[in-house]
Write the structure tokens for this entry.
Amino acid sequence: MKKDIVVIGGGPGGYVAAIRAAQFGKKVMIVDREGLGGTCLTRGCIPSKALITAADRLEMIRHSSQLGIDVNGDITVDLRRVVEWKNGLIKKLTSGVASLLKANQVEVCSGTATFIDNQTIQVDAEGQNHQFEFDHCIIATGAKPAELQILPFDGDKVISSTAALQLQSVPQKLLIVGGGYIGLELGIAYQKLGSEVTILEGLSQVLPGVDPTLVRVVTKRLKQLEINVKTNARVTGGNTDGDEVEIQAAINGSEQRFRADKALVAVGRVPNTDNLGLENTRIETDKKGFIRVNSQLRTTENNIFAIGDVTGGPLLAHKASFEGKIVAEVINGEDAEVDYHAMPYVIFSDPEIAYTGLQPEEAEEQGYDPVVSRMAFQANGRALTLGEDSGFVQIVSDKPTQQILGVQIVGPEASTLISEAVMAIEMGMTAEDLGLMIHAHPTLPEVLQEAAEGVMGQAIHMVNKNPALSR
């Protein structure tokens, strides 16, 4: 059986690539072994944000008295019902993906795909094997949680992020190994739901690699939430005997022990390339197993492409979807390639973090003369009425041209606000362009406008640190 394009993996990269290719008139088949939607929809982005939403609502109710609203009686959390609600959302979204694929005449095959050669795959579907030839193939198999050899997953006391999203009760004590975005997001959520949370991070700050000025705002909030954070903590061993899990960690040269009901290991992700049959092709991988691709997402087999988490780099669902569209265009004969210069990065911490473009140091390294302007949410009326006024917006511009090079946000709805910043960078807007845009009042995006005006030394609601520029 011959197909124009075979897509392996039905996540946000795979199904988007399949639909876009079908829109170009290609005969497309998508092969998926774990259900449409991939990690993001079924085991990552969506379920974790559902859990975070439930936790935030609970936190809001508990602190509503400062708004003059008193809630009498005990507030209880039924995590089983939270999980049922979350699973309902997933079912609705996965059904939507299936409907879209059907509407675009994309054939869906449930099973495990293995390369026979660079033009043939074999699909094992419930014990029956079928072979398909293709002109082009797109690998979009994603990644899975990395496991520590000294602390392997057992699905009970030592769990992955996938298992953490299926717990039926709130752990009294939760120990998290890894202070990256996954560990931090889930740790904050479970603390709000009632767990006593400890986070062990091997490096000097949580959220390694993120601008420390943004992280400091979140770190302050972690202390308010009474989350116990241990940095420079290297896990040296673990024991799951008895009713609890015990973990040993070396912290600044001192050996310490931690006990909890559950230990969530969130130390990164590894690519899903096992049993894919890459050895039957000329496809190359790096030392971590991620597939090597060029700027058009081609592998070292000219007719086989790879997108999303399986290629490494930032593991972002929206990056995978973007790459899926690019690959479909390339296969259609268009001269397209990826451009990540305005890629948004979002962390659903408390408060949220989002950034895009260049940091001040990066701008300087690339030969720009950066001007930085920072506007605090404390001076924004809408943030105050929401009771979420911590954090700031920072804009990085080029001094001679005022072109916006990067934006960093920590504060309420940062995940939403970053889209305006992405558009500004993609459109080549200057600080003056953004400052002259009329923003509705009272709204959070006004902070972006004010920060842009601050680049020119013309901000109204903060003291200007940059000299005023004449028009």
User: Anything to note?
Assistant: The mean pLDDT is 95. Residues 371 and 397 are 5 Å apart (CA to CA). The longest helix spans residues 79-103. The chain is about 30% helix and 25% strand.
